[in-house]
Structure formats: structure tokens, C-alpha cells
Write a structure and sequence with these properties.
Elements: H1 3-7, H2 20-25, H3 47-64, H4 88-91, H5 97-105, E1 111-115, H6 125-139, E2 146-149, E3 165-168, H7 172-181, E4 183-186, E5 189-195, E6 203-210, H8 216-232, H9 234-242, H10 253-262, E7 265-270, E8 279-284, H11 292-303, E9 307-309, E10 312-316, H12 351-355
Antiparallel strand pairs: 1-3, 1-5, 2-3, 4-5, 6-8, 6-10, 7-8, 9-10
Helix pairs in contact: 3-7, 9-10
This protein binds zinc ion.
Length: 357
């Protein structure tokens, strides 16, 4: 499978988005479990976790030099926050290969920024660049970043896909600071900053069809079901034996398989307000590979399994797409990021607001 096909407008994994009405059915009590999913830090190396792990040291250094922090840029939370399901494939889904090649060739620290609640457009791109520049200069007054925009593959995508901007010609500390905070709100303008070299996240799928109540016990039950079917699916073990660059360096190949299965974590989300509303189960597994193409194959491998159980038949469904942060494990109404209410009104940003400031 060539990289080009992976980053073309191949929407086979997410074209069948949930109907808009589903958003109304999602219980507001559902929350991204990202903060509760634990990872062995040693096997992750990039933005979300490394950023989080470095944030403490950045914070510590900031005490001696507060230049990176102002009233508008408080230190990042100590708790790591993730945008689950936003992998390299999803981040650059609408970016043309030619643009991606140019971005890859750019030297120095690189950060990708996307605006909360923004969508793909061919209008007002320059205004978006100006807003990002204004916000960055408010954070780092002495910076002079290059802000690159993409020529979208399609300007008429009615799904909350990412419309990314490349930020480079910035220093390493500034780059780390942007990424470690992840979600920024400057003068009512909210954006997300992630590493250009984005690692694979652990979210693999949302299972529907398992008729269990929303409870920790149900989560454990689904974990057992998922582990059993992964173990019984020969191609899963074969895949892990072949691709395990993201796992600890076990000497026995089979340990890679066992380790991966041991990291299965499940969190249920009730799809409605009634006590007996159906429950969907988000499944998280530490990805065996960090290679973008192989990770996509891994996701499709796991999503392609039918999880037969005594409580129903679990099937992967592309249920969630957060329009705010573009995560795939929660709905927009359950987004954990503190987005300014002014912008949290839909997918259309009121750019006139910014013109007034
Ligand atoms: Zn979100």
C-alpha cells in the first residue's frame, strides 16, 4: 500500500458518519476517557505524551524564566490530554500530497495548528492565517513564524475533518510549548497545536451491538471479549509479529502479541438519556506500530473483526466525530476541551468578531 493512497481522499473508514441527530442522543455525561487511559510512557515518543511529560519540565523551567508565560498563556495542565483517533492519516486527510511533501521538506521544528470548530474551506484562508499569526505573536512576541495553508483536496466536505496549517521557523522551546498546551484560547480564538510528526493514538474503534449497561463491569466484560477475538484472529497476531516498532523490545516475538492484548482498555458511553439507552464501547489499544501506513492497516484489521459474545454482536461503527477537537472517541457535545463559548456555536466561525479586536 503506497503512502499516496493512504493520504488521498479515501474516506472508507469514516464516510458513513453518524447522522446529525445522533449528536442529540449522546449523553452529556459521556466523557473522553483519555485522561484515564494509562500508557507506559517509555514506548511513546511524541506530542501527546511526550509533550505532556515534558510540560512539567517546561513548567519548572518557567519558574526561573517566565518569558513563555503571560496572563493569556497559563502553564499547561499537568494532566496529559489527548485527541484520540486523530492520527497522521486523519490530520492530513484533506491535504494534497504535493503540499505534504513541501511540508515534510521544511526544516526545523514543525507544529500543525487547526482551529476549533473550523471546517475545510476555500474561503477566508488568509484570514485564518492572520488570526493564527496574531495569536502566535501574542504568545511569543518575538517569533516570526511561517504559516502554511493547504490547498484542500475538497472544499465541500460536510464532515468535521481537520483543516491544518503548518507552523515552522519557530524555535524548539516555542514548538514544545505550543504542543504541550495542545488547546489554546487567545482573545476568544481557540486552536489546537500538535506535533507535525504525529504519533498513532490508542483509540481503535467504537463497538456497538453489545447489550450491556454502562458500568465498569461492562467495560471489563468488553475488554475480555475484545482480547479473546483478537487472540483468536490469526491475522492480528501475524500483524503484531511483523510490525511492533512502537512496543518495548521484547526478545520473544510472542511477547509483543501478549503485551498488545494486555493493553486493551474499554470505556462505555450511553447513547441517550434513559437508563436503558444503548451503550457504545470505545476500545483503546496501544498501537504496535507508529508507522502511519501500517497503523492504518492495524486499525482496519481490528475494526474488521466481528466480536460475537453472549451479550450481543459487537461491530465497529464510526459513531463519534468531534467537530471541535476532531477526536473520534466522543461527540462534539462531550468534548473535554474548554473551547470559548463564542466559537462553540457550530462549524462556522464568526470572523467578524476577530475583525473587531
Ligand atoms: Zn472534542
Amino acid at each position: 500500500m503506497c503512502a499516496r493512497s493512504l493520504f488521498s481522499e479515501d474516506n472508507s473508514d469514516g464516510a458513513s458518519t453518524a447522522p446529525d441527530t445522533l449528536e442529540l442522543l449522546i449523553s452529556p455525561v459521556s466523557r473522553s476517557p483519555s485522561a484515564r487511559v494509562s500508557y507506559p510512557e517509555s514506548i511513546f515518543s511524541s506530542d501527546d505524551l511526550a509533550g505532556a511529560s515534558t510540560s512539567a519540565s517546561i513548567f519548572a523551567s518557567a519558574r526561573s524564566s517566565t518569558s513563555l508565560y503571560t496572563n493569556v498563556t497559563p502553564p499547561p495542565d499537568a494532566t496529559p490530554r489527548l485527541i484520540q483517533g486523530l492520527n497522521r492519516h486523519e490530520l492530513f486527510e484533506v491535504v494534497r500530497q504535493e503540499t505534504l511533501h513541501e511540508w515534510e521538506a521544511a526544516l526545523g521544528p514543525k507544529v500543525v495548528i487547526f482551529i476549533a470548530n473550523d471546517t475545510v474551506t476555500n474561503r477566508d484562508i488568509h484570514l485564518r492565517v492572520s488570526l493564527i499569526r496574531r495569536a502566535l505573536l501574542k504568545i511569543f512576541p518575538d517569533a516570526d513564524p511561517i504559516i502554511g495553508s493547504a490547498e484542500p483536496i475538497s472544499a465541500c466536505i460536510n464532515r468535521p475533518v481537520v483543516f491544518p496549517f503548518l507552523i515552522h521557523r519557530i524555535s524548539e522551546p516555542y514548538s514544545r510549548r505550543l504542543i504541550s498546551q495542545l488547546c489554546w484560547t487567545i482573545d476568544g480564538f481557540t486552536f489546537f497545536a500538535v506535533d507535525f510528526v504525529r504519533p498513532a493514538t490508542s483509540f481503535v474503534m467504537t463497538l456497538t451491538g453489545l447489550h450491556l449497561p454502562s458500568s465498569p463491569e461492562s467495560n471489563r466484560t468488553v475488554e475480555t471479549v475484545v482480547r479473546r477475538w483478537l487472540r483468536d484472529t490469526q491475522s492480528v497476531a501475524s500483524f503484531i509479529r511483523q510490525y511492533h516498532d512502537n512496543l518495548p523490545g521484547f526478545t520473544i516475538t510472542e511477547d509483543h502479541v501478549e503485551f498488545t492484548l494486555s493493553t486493551v482498555e474499554v470505556t462505555g458511553t450511553r447513547l441517550g438519556f434513559e437508563a436503558d439507552s444503548p451503550v457504545a464501547f470505545n476500545v483503546y489499544i496501544i498501537p504496535p506500530t507508529n508507522d502511519a501506513a501500517h497503523h492504518l492497516a492495524w486499525m482496519r484489521e481490528v475494526q474488521g473483526i466481528t466480536y460475537f459474545a453472549d451479550c450481543g454482536t459487537g461491530k465497529a461503527a464510526p459513531l463519534f466525530r468531534c467537530s471541535t477537537c476532531k477526536a473520534r472517541d466522543h461527540s462534539s457535545t462531550s468534548c473535554p476541551f474548554p473551547v470559548n463559548q463564542l466559537l462553540d456555536v457550530g462549524t462556522n466561525i464568526d470572523f467578524n468578531y476577530f475583525r473587531m479586536h
